[in-house]
Amino acid sequence: MLRSPEHCLLSKEGDVTIGGVFSIHSQISSPLLSFTDTPNSLTCSRINFREFRFVQTMIFAIEEINNSSSLLPNVTLGYKVFDSCGSIMASMRVAMALLNGNDTAYGKTCSEKSSIHTVIGASESSSTIIMLRTLGEFQIPVISHFATCACLSDKTKYPTFFRTIPSDYYQSRALAKLVKHFGWTWVGSVRSDNDYGNNGMVAFADAARLEGVCIEYSETISRLDTREKVARVVSVIRGGTARVLVAFLAQGEMDILIEEAVKQNLTGLQWVGSESWITAGHLATQRNTAILTGSLGFTIRKSNISGLKEFLLRVSPSQDSQSSLLKEFWETMFDCKFDSNLENQASDRQCSGSEKLENVGNPYTDVSELRISNNVYKAVYAVAHTIHNMLNCEKTGGNGNPSCTWTTNSKREQVLKYLKEVNFPLKSGERVYFDKNGDPAAMYELVNWQRNRAGEPMFVTVGNYDASLPNKKQFTMNGINITWAAESRERPQSVCSASCLKGFRQATIKGKPVCCFSCIPCAAGEISNATDSAECNKCLLQFWSNEDHSLCVPKVVEFLSFEETMGALLTAISLFGTSLTVIVSVVFFHFRHTPLVKASNSELSFLLLFSLTLCFLCSLTFIGRPSDWSCILRHTAFGITFSMFWITFIPAYVSSPGKFTVAVEIFAILASSFGLLFCIFAPKLYILLLKPERNTKMNMMGKTQRKSL
């Protein structure tokens, strides 16, 4: 049945009138524009049972308040319900109808001058924004139960906006933390091409970037897109390498996408959904389970509204025989017709009006997932408490009960002032209030699509997110097993590059996102002790990297010990050389007055012998456990001594590893020392000890003269 959105569909008179704007129908047909005739009205079709439940929840809350003796006594709430059809154009017409009352009545009177004091709705961010631009000029507050765009928190643009659902600012960050928690750093994304989807995806992309998550592709869908456009989007998703799809979609766009996904058998993807569709009961069908089972997403906490189920089951066309909306609801619900002339409709059966709603299972009668419905309920009570406070109803009357009276002096502009300060508990214990941006506290449940024993889809809470807690404590899992995509027992992997193990570092690949990288091993003396390290860290001076470069370990102290054969041998040679040098010194000292010693420059000879003694002893500093003083002494002495030697030593020295380097140094020292000792002093000792007759001044002078000649 076709509806025009500017028509009031349901209404009731009251002292205070609440406007309700909901997407009661999910399809809208635009009129043909000839630019020569007045265009026809927009027409809406395909009733949405979930949204119709929102409408009835609003009416239920109003009736509950009207029957209360403690809240707004002597003041009656009324309502006018309009259909935005999830369309911007329809929402604009609804806003004008709410303001001036120029609406055509369907059923009860909706044609008088508008007396709307507050509006509850709409169900989409774009529709809400359009209404605010009109209603905000007249200081009429709008409380949305489902508009989540973070842009609506801007009080400079939307000072009259409030909502009972958290902003996407928090949901986007929660989704980013979710994909990071499960190690999904490479994801695809699809969004509604409207304020809800575009702003939500921008916020998610920013949060994902901070979490180190990259987006492979980002596609858009509008409910007005052709099938070819939607098919192209599904083809892009199918062709991507990411195995996780973040779907920031409103209900209308999700309906279109899932229909095409089923046609193309798009299975094997892990869906991560926004709160708009993640608990939408009409999607949880056997037809969709092959694709959506295992889906994860955040939604607001569910609640129980006492008495709502019974109220919903009492709804029937007999409540208002003139309401065409109730007739349409009934005909769609039971697949029948109220028309008496069925000659040309042999396939349709006659509606009796006595059919039982409790025999039908669909999103309207299912109250097991009261999440958005609870938002509608809270919005109505927020209005009631606002009016209650505005009229000073806490002052007791003569019987001791609160009493308040609505007068013509009560200005609806005051509602906005008192709505900002409202703070009250529901019967369930939940407290309702708005922060400075008109937003509620941001608390979510993480929902997972699973199957019950009968094989039917069900929504299971597997985690929580509370934005009021410190950053590291905001996201928690409750330990319940998760069903993954395609009902796999193992968590899917979705990365551009495999993680770099400990001992490796990431190296970006030119022209690709930061999530795509190569793994480069750490250099010697460097480590990385965590997976996916961006850099390798150098070990401290006294440490070195282990074999897999994942840990700095103390350097191995390797030295030439006195107990080793080589150490003992070199020590013996060193001491032998020292002893020999001392003996030579004693001999030279004994013969210090002889011509040979005098001719050899005795002072220089004794200095050289003293130096050789030190050189022989110097080699002992290279043996044994090294210490600070021994290391300083050995190299200093060796360097100085042998620097010249609603050149030949260097090649051998640098090529010897470990303790053999020390051995080379000792050999060099000893060889040089023995060379000096024997080459310089052996001939002289030969004369002094074995040929003393040659140790005369004449021989010394004669030798010198011959040398001169």
Shape: elongated
The tally of helices reads 19
Would you tell me the structural class of the helices and strands?
alpha/beta
Count of DSSP E strands? Answer: 26
- Helix fraction, binned, reads 25-40%
Largest sheet: 8 strands, mixed
Poorly predicted regions? 104-113, 703-709
The average pLDDT score comes to 85
Radius of gyration: 46 Å
User: How far do the termini sit from each other?
Assistant: 138 Å
Strand order of the largest sheet: 10-9-11-12-13-18-19-20
* Approximate strand percentage: 15-25%
Per-chain topology:
Elements: E1 10-12, E2 16-22, E3 25-29, E4 43-47, H1 49-66, E5 77-83, H2 88-100, E6 116-120, H3 125-135, E7 142-144, E8 161-163, H4 168-181, E9 186-192, H5 195-210, E10 214-221, H6 227-239, E11 244-248, H7 251-263, E12 270-273, H8 286-292, E13 296-300, H9 308-314, H10 324-334, E14 336-337, E15 349-350, H11 372-390, H12 413-419, E16 423-425, E17 431-433, E18 443-451, E19 457-466, E20 475-477, E21 504-508, E22 517-521, E23 526-527, E24 537-538, E25 543-545, E26 552-554, H13 565-590, H14 595-599, H15 602-618, H16 628-642, H17 649-654, H18 659-690, H19 697-708
Parallel strand pairs: 2-5, 2-6, 6-7, 7-8, 9-10, 9-11, 11-12, 12-13, 14-15
Antiparallel strand pairs: 1-5, 3-4, 13-18, 16-17, 18-19, 19-20, 21-22, 23-24, 25-26
